[in-house]
Recover the amino acids of this structure.
């Protein structure tokens, strides 16, 4: 029994860790989509960018300062991107934002590969050691990273309901026209939300750096998973993004050891397609921030 | 009062002259188009005899095969308004079906095309039932899922059957009516002829009621429903047709390279074909050909000039097209062409 339970338990833990990181990214994606119908395909690169800033900053300032600074830097980049790339094409169909951010993702990947050493890098976690799970070890850092990710998502979520910016975001996602008629500058709100979501993706990258290897393309698979998660939950739904993230993470991590990774991916895709068919707007989807 | 009348008269006169010129221009514009199409086709067919050879010819052949892939996607994106992120699947399936037939049974090119069309029509027919029930961003994600599934299944197929993880190799040169098509000029001519005929057939098809219905759905789905168009059936038909046309690109690519590696239809490659269509111009059938040629040559040169930072330039170019040139090269060309013929 023990031999059967142990791998399952470890897989469950890994799934929770991955799910928490994924939730950080998919939460930002769904927030931006619900607010401005912006599909951000560059989130994966912002995630990688966060990890690379951490790589550069942590030898000078230490990991913990990098954890605070890197998301802010990426958030600033997100600000510039929203102003320069997203805003000019807001009047076009939403699919253009997907194409523009995708082009941006290619460019930024190239910049990362030029600016930093293109070889994959392994980083030591700031908290060493591991917990004992039955007989096997489980790195402590993974648990801490997951905890930080969950707390960050929770903070943003609470912030949406307690701060003025949160109120503005909810107002603008609920009814953009009405919000702007009442004197709210919805453009500014979108800019702020977009940089917030980029910062969240970067934070996930900083946390993931010591867990997975740091590569320029580290965000590609994560981006697809994050979008699958958002599709399951419903584009624009906050609850959906978090639930979807854990669902996808479970589907991909639980079968490790029994099933090959390809079949797990196919299962995840099949889940998304079946949700799309029965509820095209997702399980919790209403197309706006609840 | 009097001077005002004169001015009014003059303005009317000017309008009439302008109108007459425009009508004349429109006629010239139409004739000019046909002449331009014939010239472009002739130039393409003559390319091997006017100095394109060696690696350049290989690249051009590849570009024209990729153009079929792109034209198929354009039928879906530009004419039906569905953005597919999964067209890599049809390139791969077409190449595998044709390559397998050619390696094991007959090298006849028509048999290969037929096999690819049949396999892709079946798979896309089933997948289309699922995919065409949604549109917009969900459609993009569902097609991505389909492409990933097709890729993962092909990779998992037993190696002794077809390829496995490395890909399908050892495909012989194709033949037509029992005569082998030699690599180089002959294969180039065959590819070009196929591409041109497919585009000509499609340019007729988009003017038929079926093609008009697709464009109506693209422009306004609700209105299309109101005038009695069966939106889901037409979308499904467009999806399958688009997949079959794209698969022909895979067939020619497979013959040109003597096979296909799994990397070439890895699901992220769907983005490449989307770039080709966007560069060339959505909703114009010759645009994707230009896009594919441009993409192949620029891509190859960028990698050899800037082995490290080519992605930056590639991404910036793509970004510039999305931001400033929504109609792609074809859109810019049409504007210029219209101005040339209609301005007095």
């Amino acid at each position: 029994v023990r031999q059967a339970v142990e791998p399952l338990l470890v897989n469950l833990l890994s799934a929770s860790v991955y799910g928490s990181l994924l939730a950080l990214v998919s939460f930002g994606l769904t927030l931006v989509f619900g607010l401005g119908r912006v599909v951000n395909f560059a989130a994966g690169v912002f995630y990688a960018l966060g990890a690379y800033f951490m790589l550069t900053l942590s030898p000078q300032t230490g990991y913990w300062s990098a954890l605070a600074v890197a998301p802010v830097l990426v958030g600033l980049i997100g600000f510039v991107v929203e102003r320069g790339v997203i805003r000019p094409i807001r009047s076009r169909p939403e699919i253009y934002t997907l194409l523009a951010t995708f082009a941006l993702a290619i460019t930024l990947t190239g910049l990362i590969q030029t600016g930093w050493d293109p070889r994959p890098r392994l980083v030591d976690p700031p908290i060493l050691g591991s917990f004992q799970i039955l007989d096997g070890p489980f790195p402590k850092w993974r648990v801490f990273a997951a905890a930080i990710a969950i707390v960050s998502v929770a903070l943003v979520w609470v912030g949406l309901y307690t701060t003025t910016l949160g109120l503005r975001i909810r107002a603008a996602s609920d009814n953009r026209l009405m919000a702007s008629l009442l004197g709210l500058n919805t453009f500014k709100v979108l800019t702020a939300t977009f940089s917030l979501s980029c910062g969240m993706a970067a934070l996930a990258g900083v946390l993931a750096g010591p867990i997975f290897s740091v590569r320029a393309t580290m965000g590609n698979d994560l981006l697809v998973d994050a979008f699958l998660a958002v599709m399951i939950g419903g584009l624009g739904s906050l609850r959906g993004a978090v639930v979807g993230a854990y669902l996808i993470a479970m589907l991909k991590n639980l079968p490790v050891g029994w099933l090959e990774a390809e079949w797990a991916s196919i299962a995840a895709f099949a889940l998304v397609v079946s949700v799309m068919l029965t509820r095209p707007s997702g399980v919790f989807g209403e197309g706006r921030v609840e | 009062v009097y001077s005002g009348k004169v001015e009014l008269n003059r303005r009317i006169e000017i309008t009439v002259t302008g109108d007459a010129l425009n009508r004349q221009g429109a006629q010239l514009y139409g004739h000019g188009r046909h002449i331009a199409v014939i010239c472009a086709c002739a130039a393409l067919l003559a390319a091997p005899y006017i100095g394109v050879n060696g690696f350049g010819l290989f690249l051009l052949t590849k570009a024209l095969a990729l153009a079929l892939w792109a034209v198929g996607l354009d039928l879906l994106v530009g004419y039906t308004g569905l953005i597919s992120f999964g067209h890599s699947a049809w390139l791969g399936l077409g190449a595998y079906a044709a390559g397998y037939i050619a390696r094991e049974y007959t090298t006849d090119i028509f048999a290969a095309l037929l096999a690819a069309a049949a396999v892709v029509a079946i798979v896309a027919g089933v997948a289309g039932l699922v995919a065409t029930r949604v549109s917009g961003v969900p459609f993009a994600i569902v097609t991505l899922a389909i492409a990933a599934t097709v890729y993962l299944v092909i990779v998992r197929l037993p190696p002794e059957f077809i390829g496995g993880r490395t890909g399908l190799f050892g495909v012989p040169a194709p033949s037509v009516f029992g005569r082998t098509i030699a690599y180089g000029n002959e294969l180039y001519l065959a590819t070009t002829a196929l591409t041109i005929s497919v585009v000509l057939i499609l340019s007729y098809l988009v003017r038929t009621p079926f093609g008009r219905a697709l464009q109506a759905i693209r422009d306004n789905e609700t209105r299309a429903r109101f005038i009695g168009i069966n939106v889901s059936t037409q979308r499904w038909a467009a999806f399958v047709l688009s997949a079959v046309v794209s698969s022909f690109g895979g067939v020619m690519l497979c013959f040109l390279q003597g096979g296909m590696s799994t990397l070439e239809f890895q699901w992220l490659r769907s983005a490449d074909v989307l770039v080709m269509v966007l560069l060339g111009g959505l909703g114009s059938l010759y645009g994707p050909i230009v896009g594919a040629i441009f993409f192949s040559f620029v891509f190859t040169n960028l990698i050899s000039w800037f082995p490290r930072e080519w992605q930056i330039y590639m991404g910036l170019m793509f970004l510039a097209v999305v931001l400033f040139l929504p109609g792609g090269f074809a859109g810019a060309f049409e504007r210029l062409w219209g101005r040339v013929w209609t301005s007095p």
The longest helix of chain B spans residues 2-46.
